[in-house]
Amino acid sequence: MAEAHGRRITRSFLLILALAVGLAASAFAQPIGTRSPSWAELPPAEKQFLAPFASDWDKWDAQRKAKWRGIAQRYPKMAPDEQERLRQQMTAWAQLSPAERAAARERYKTLKTLPPEQKQQMREKWEQYQNLPPEKKRELESKSPPGSPAPFSRGRSPPPPPPPPPVTGGPPPSPPPGR
Asked: What's the domain count of the chain?
């Protein structure tokens, strides 16, 4: 009799455990058929922030949209200088052609793999370039070898380098989305 009682308790425990696991899994699962909002469905505040990407928004996958919606929701809490830097980066990225974006992504991947000393040298070179007068920048651009990536050759300012990783201890930011 004690053995039958023990089996019932074990079965009850296993049933409760299975239900608990099922409930926990369903709490983390996304509903089937969930889709990301189209541009027309975005709230006005998000549309205002994401305006540089309006023409591309409906072509993006759900993951990219979710990433940028998260940034849009954090934007009002950012310091004014952070907001300005982000807006400039977004605008510069949105103005690049698909080929220029692909070249920028490749440079970003290459820079990520450099040792810390070389990364520091690249930062210093970038700062030196940033401090050059506009005519000197144009001169350097005109001297770039044919076929080399020159994303700023149409009179636009070069896009800023990728931002440093967040201080919060989260994952590093991904490069801005392409088309």
From this structure: 2
